[in-house]
Amino acid sequence: MSTEAYRIEPAAPHDFALIDAIEKVAFGAASWGSGDVAQTARIDGVSTLLARGETSHDVSGFLLWRMAGEDAEILTIGVLPTDRRKGIGAALVRKCLDACEIAGARRLILEVAADNRSALALYHSLGFEEFAHRPRYYRNGADALLMARGLHPGA
Ligand SMILES: CC(C)(COP(=O)(O)OP(=O)(O)OC[C@H]1O[C@@H](n2cnc3c(N)ncnc32)[C@H](O)[C@@H]1OP(=O)(O)O)[C@@H](O)C(=O)NCCC(=O)NCCS
């Protein structure tokens, strides 16, 4: 079994195409579509984190976030299916929480499909709580949940 350690770091523009490819594999039929994540990563104000193997330097996961008024929001997060349940998703969200606190955000918010059990388990394990419910929000008819975790800007 691999014991590779992962480093969470900002992405460089030359990583954006790779993030796009990982998103496609991570989300499957629910992928945003070719080029869309790379395009979003290039938008002013959008920050991007990567999980990179310390030894292999392979990228296994990514997260995009941005400030939205007093809140920060996770736009998308994905981990390759072969690298799941190794703590990479949690490490990405923790790094994002730190960055959002430094940026002065009061909360970190996100939207998740109500039937996405792994993502919900991840967010609950990190202290996120549901604050709104959007029935039949997605194309496949699934409900969306809005979740938030309070931050301590400047603490
Ligand atoms: C959601 C996702 C990012 C989680 O990434 P991950 O690297 O596997 O998550 P972690 O290994 O850091 O998991 C941290 C904790 O979350 C919970 N968790 C994560 N996946 C879980 C699963 N399939 N079942 C139950 N709990 C799960 C567990 O509490 C886990 O801790 P543990 O392994 O010590 O029990 C990954 O499953 C993914 O890319 N899914 C497809 C894309 C997606 O749905 N993104 C979210 C959109 S809102």
Give an account of the 3D structure.
There is one protein chain. With 155 residues, this protein is α+β, with helices and mostly antiparallel strands. It has a domain at 6-110: Aminopeptidase (3-Layer(aba) Sandwich), CATH 3.40.630. 27% of the residues lie in helices and 34% in strands. It has four helices and seven strands. It has a seven-stranded mixed beta sheet with strand order 1-2-3-4-5-7-6. Strand 3 (59-68) and strand 4 form a beta hairpin. It binds coenzyme A. Residues 26-27, 77-79, 84-90, 112, 116-119, 121-122, 125 line the site of coenzyme A (COA).
Q: Order of strands side by side in the largest beta sheet?
A: 1-2-3-4-5-7-6
| Number of helices, where a helix is a run of at least 4 consecutive DSSP H or I residues | 4
Q: What sort of overall outline do the alpha carbons produce when their principal axes are compared?
A: globular
Helix percent reads 25-40%
* Low-confidence parts: none
Span of the ends, CA to CA = 39 Å
What is the top-level CATH class of the domain at 6-110? Alpha Beta
Give the CATH topology of the domain at 6-110. Answer: Aminopeptidase
Order of helices and strands: EHHEEEHEHEE
Radius of gyration: 15 Å
Give the overall pLDDT as a whole number: 95
Binned strand content: 25-35%
List how many beta strands DSSP finds.
Answer: 7
- Corresponding CATH architecture of the domain at 6-110: 3-Layer(aba) Sandwich
